[in-house]
Structure formats: structure tokens, C-alpha cells
Amino acid sequence: MNALSHPFFLHAVLAGTAIAAAAGLVGYFLVLRAQVFTGDALSHTAFTGALAALAIGWDLRIGLFATTIGVAVLLGLLGRRSRADDVAIGSAFSWILGLGVFFLTLYTTSRSTADGNAGTSVLFGSIFGLSASAAWTAVVVAGVLCLAVLGLARPLLFASVDEAVAAARGVPVRLLGLGFLALVGACAAEATQAVGSLLLLGLLAAPAGAAQRLTDRPYRALALAAGLAVAEMWIGLGVAYAVPSMPPSFTILATATLVYAATYLPRPQPRRGAGSRTAYARTT
């Protein structure tokens, strides 16, 4: 039977494709701006926000988006030039994680009807458990994130490569940095549904890191990061469907890791003569 004939798998593919595309686009700038540690901090924030929402009886997505976007912007305000620095992140890192454990305990002990697997679902994702409405909501949110990143791509690339010159040219570097961190927070909240907060960083960093190693052209790398993330999502979901004992979050991240590792393999270099003829042809 075709895998797409199963509603749970179709919903996972729909949501996963959109989430992966957004994660690839956001992740490229996250890697380019050397803010990967920010993504790590937001993965812990996602866990805390989701459990806080569940503990007070709200939809966990409210907690996810409110906390990840709020903390992302706060880290930007505490850092220099709207870039969260390691000191600001390190100061909040362990406190946020400890707060998440507190809310998990509060949720499981204060609510008699509490789902004991909620903490595990938040940590490792539950993409095969998405309903049709949740899947389409993920598509819409991820689509908005993709459009926002593409709309900011040109000035954000300028500010990421040479911040001082961009500021001198009138680019609102600080506001742009805060806006980008808000997008990172929203993407982290959305991607938690697919791979969970514990493995979230891999989906943001691995495809983007591989893309940067494969090409030094920014826009090509941006498209490649999104394409790799989507392909890795599809492969991971397919493997998880074929081997039910493997959780989809593991297969997705394992695929992303293997692709990133493959970029370190030796690649054939163009022959010197061929390269010289190509360079000559470009100049004539």
C-alpha cells in the first residue's frame, strides 16, 4: 500500500515539508551569523514554554510561540547589536531548562488527567501524530516564515556579511537583527512539532552547514539549505515508515547528520587546464 494513502503519513509529509523548508532558510542565516548557540538555547526554551502552557491548561503551541519568540528577542536586546552573545545565552540557559523541569513536574502532579507522555512528545516530537488541522496550520505558519525570510534576505545578508558597512548605508541593523531572532524563535516553535525540542538544533544547523560547505554563493546556499532540509525530512519520514521501530525524529536527524558528514569527503577538483580555459572564456 502506498504510504501516502495513510492519513497520518500524509499529514507528516505536508507539515514536515513546510517546516523543513522554513528551518533550512532560517538556519542558513543562523549559521552565517554565527548564532547557532542561540538555536540551542531556543530548543530548551521550546521545552519550557510547551510544558508551562500545558501546566496551566493552555494549548502547548501558545507556550511554544510565546516563549521562543519572547526569549529570542530578549537575548537580542541583551546582546550587542541585536546579536545574542554567549554570555547572555549562558546566563539564561540552565535557568530555562530547570524551569522546564519544574513545569513538567507541575503538569504531571497537579492534573489527574495529564498525559504522562507529553514531556516525551515535546522533547522528541510527534510528527506522525499530527491531525489534519494541525498539519495545515503548520503549513500556513511555515509558509509565512519562508516568505518573511525571503523578504528580508537581501538586507539581512548585507548586515550579516558586513554589519558596519550596512549600518553606514542606512540598513536598520539592530531592528533587522531583532526581527531575525523573532523569526528564529517562531521557526523553533514550529519545528518542535516535527523533531522535538531536544533535536531541534540539528534541523536548523545541519542542512545549512552542509549548504555552506557545498557552495560559497549566498543565494545558492540559501536555496540549497532549504532543499537539503526538505529532502532529509522526506528520507527520514520514509525510513521511519518503513522501519516502525525507529522514531521519525531520529531518522530525520540521522539523515541530516550523514549528509553534513558527507560534505567532508574529498571531492574531485577541476583539471588545471580546464579551469584555465573556463576562466579565459569568462573574461573574453
TrEMBL record:
Name of the protein: Metal ABC transporter permease
InterPro entries the UniProt entry points to: ABC_BtuC-like, ABC_TroCD
Keyword Membrane: yes
Keywords, in A-Z order: Membrane, Transmembrane, Transmembrane helix, Transport
Superkingdom per UniProt: Bacteria
Coarse class of the protein's main subcellular location: membrane
Coiled-coil region(s): none
Annotated TM spans: 12-31, 51-75, 87-107, 127-152, 222-243, 249-267
Family membership noted in the UniProt record: Belongs to the ABC-3 integral membrane protein family.
Subcellular localization: Cell membrane; Membrane
Protein's membrane topology: Multi-pass membrane protein
Pfam families: ABC-3
